[in-house]
Amino acid sequence: MHFSLKEENYVVIENGSFKIKAIKGVSDTNRFPSVPGYVWFRTLFSARLIPTKVGRKIEDQENQNSEAQIEVISSPDISEPNSPNSSTLPKRNSKEPKYICGAQLEEAKEKFADNFQITYPIKRGVIQNWEELEALWRHILLKELNIKRARNECPVLVSVPNSWKRDDYERITQLFFETFNAPGLYIANQALMTMYGFGSLTGLVVDIGYGKTEITPVIDCSVQYHAAQVIPIAGQDFDEYFLSLLLSDSKFMEEYGDTPDLEFARAIKETDICEIPEDPYQIDNEKLERMEVDYLEKKVYEPLFNPQLINRHGILSLPEAISLAISLCETDRRNILWESITVTGGSSLVKGFKERLETELRLYLSASENYGDFQVKEVKFLKLPEYFTNLRERPDLGGFLGSSITAKLSFPDPKGFINKVDYNEHGPSVIHTKGY
C-alpha cells in the first residue's frame, strides 16, 4: 500500500443532520474565515459546508422502480478482485438514481418545481437512507474536494454522533474502501473530537445540533456511552417554536404585513438579536411592559429548559439531562465533569446561553459549606485554547478542530487508522480489530 502522507491530502468529514463540514488538507488548523456563510467556508477555510439533503426528479425515481433490477456491488476498478467484503452491504442497482447535492440543489428545485423531491439522509442524528447519504458523500469527495477515485491518495476521517452503531461503522468502512477507493479511514466520535478540540481529555460535551442535543461524558479519552443523554430538542425545534410565536403575535403580524415562514424565522433566529436571558422570569416581565417582537426573540431557546412549551412531555430539560449524565459516571470523576463542561453546536452561540445554563445548573449543586471530597463546588465551562487565536470565539467549530488535529496525528502512523491492507484482510469487520 502506498499513498502520500502529506497533510494536504488528509480529509475530514463531520456529519450533521443540517450541515456536513468537509475539508481536504489540515496543515493549518488555526485558519479561520473572515466572512460568515457558505462562501467563506469554501474559499478561505479550504472547507465545504454542505446541506445534509439531496434532491432528484420524481420521474427518475419512478423510472428506476419500473425497470429491471440488475444487481451489482461496485465497479471493478475500485474493488479488490478477491475481496472478502462483497456480502456485507445489500446489493445495489446498476442504474442508480441521479441525486443533486450542494449548491445546485436550490437551482434544480426551482427548475423542476413540483417534479422535484428533496429528502434528508440524516434526521435527528439517525441515518434514514444509506443510498442518499452515499450520494452526498460522493458529491463531497469527488466534486467538492475534487478527489480522483481511481487514484485516491486521500485518507478520510469521518466523525459521527453517539447514535451511530457498529453496523453503521461497518457500512461506512465498506463504502469508503470499495466505493470511494480511500487508502485509509478513521471513524471518530464527535464528542471525543470536541474534547480534543478544547484541549482536554476529560469533560462533559453538550452538543446542541439541529435535530437533537447530546450530552456526553468523556473520561480519560473514553466516551461514557452508558451515561450519555439525548434530548430530541434542538435547532429545528427552535425554528418551529419561534415561527409559532410570531404567528400568534397579532401586533407583529399586523406590522409585518405578510405570513412568515420557517425560513424567515430561522433567518431572524440566526442573527445577533436573539438572546437567552439569565433570569427566565425576565421574559414575562418584559411582555407585561411592552408588546414588541424583541421579547419573542428571548423565548426562542426556552424549550431546551422547559420542553413542555412545545408539548414534549416526559423529556428531560437540558439541566436535568446534564445532572443525570454526570450522576451515572464514577463518583470520584463527577467533580471534574461539573468543572469541565464544553458547550458546542450552532445554537450554543446564542448570546447569554452559558450564563443561563450556569444559573440553572447551580440548583443541582450542594448548598452545604462543608464540602466533602466528592461534592461539587462550582460549574465551569471549558474554552478553546488561546493559541487558536482565530478560532477561540467559535466553540461550534471545536469538534471540527479536534477532528483535524486527530487526522494530523493519526494518519502518519500506519497503526493509527484502518488502511487498505487491513481492510483487504478482514473486510468491514476490521473495525472490531481496531477497537471500535
How would you portray this structure in words?
The protein has 436 residues and is α+β, with helices and mostly antiparallel strands. Among the domains are: 220 residues, 2-Layer Sandwich (Nucleotidyltransferase, domain 5); 73 residues, no CATH class. The protein is 35% helix and 15% strand. It is built from 17 helices and 17 strands. The strands form five sheets. Strands 3-2-1-10-11-17 form a six-stranded mixed β-sheet, with helices on both faces. Strands 12, 13, 14, 15 and 16 form a five-stranded mixed β-sheet that branches. It has a two-stranded antiparallel ribbon with strand order 4-7. The protein is globular and about 60 Å long. The two termini are 23 Å apart. About 10% of the residues have low confidence.
